[in-house]
Specification:
By secondary structure, the protein is α/β, with parallel strands linked by helices. It has helices spanning 85-95, 116-125, 141-147, 161-172, 188-195, 234-244, 257-263, 271-276, 303-306, 310-313, 316-322, 324-335, and strands at 4-10, 13-19, 21-24, 28-32, 39-43, 57-63, 101-106, 129-134, 153-156, 177-183, 212-217, 252-255, 286-289, 294-296, 308-309. Helix content is 29%, strand content 22%.
Amino acid sequence: MEFEERIIRDGNQIIKGIFDKYYSTPDYEVHFNTMTGLEVLKGRNNRDPFRTELPLLIDVGIMGSCLNSCSFCYQGPETEPHMTFDNFKMIIDQVKHHTNQVALGGRGDPNLHPEFKEFVEYARDNNVVPNYTTSGINLTDEQIEISKMCGAVAVSDYNKGFTFNALRRLMDEEIKTNIHFIFSNPNYDKAMKIVNGEDAWKGKVDISRLNAIVFLLFKPQGSGKDKPELIPTKGQIKEFANIIFTPKCQFKVGMDSCLINHVLDYSIPNKIQRMAIDTCESSRMSVYISPSMRMIPCSFADHLRWGVNISQFEDIRYIWNDSPNFINFRKIIKNKPNKCPAGL
């Protein structure tokens, strides 16, 4: 589709934007800009859709192993073969008319996958925007060139030389660059400095060029399951919630659904912010697919309890809409929107 300007009315709210991808059902309509990432999901008949008929975002675990061995990694030390390009093509071919974005991930840096370029190109060629997160370790010029096809690249905040080097090189190429920051007990003070507008990186990051920082709740799973000391306290979450909707930093701020679930216990966003956030979207508007092609409501949910083998059905739509695992996961969210079925 070509880019066109549209005015979207939803109750008293009016959103004006330029979009090139559009999908409509009797229950909702989706407008998406594949260049800026602006996405508007609008329910029909003044109803906010609880779920979509296919995911709008797919977290695709293309990496089966990692070289970094982080002590807190929620994926744990287990390894498996990387996802094949043919399997990735199968995913995109089934969902490209509806899915707007794929987040390339898994265990480790997706830019180290031998077919990283092919994954990114195939997604873009099919009007699905690829994004990925990297540690920044051993980031090459070729990988940076490939990253220009992505909607955004996030660098995990390890606060190391490779972190700052990757941020600088990506921003030098005018790639939309974010920082992923784990909100944990030991990271609390730094998180508060960031939202209070302080330079928490002491000049090592050009914050004038930084697109956003996304706070990710620490997950006590995998390698981190025996580290309760990393779990943020209720008091820390409450203090963070008191300022996160009025941050003083000069870049955009975001949170994953896991953290927003807890933040909403202590703070109320304004109307505009409310339109831009949601509680858990897993099995409703987003999904995770592992390197071995298990489709799971989210990457943090138990893969054996909630996962379904795509190869068994070869039909993502069926698993999404009719699998008992996904139906039961959605029931938990519908009954208690702020309750995490994965136990986080």
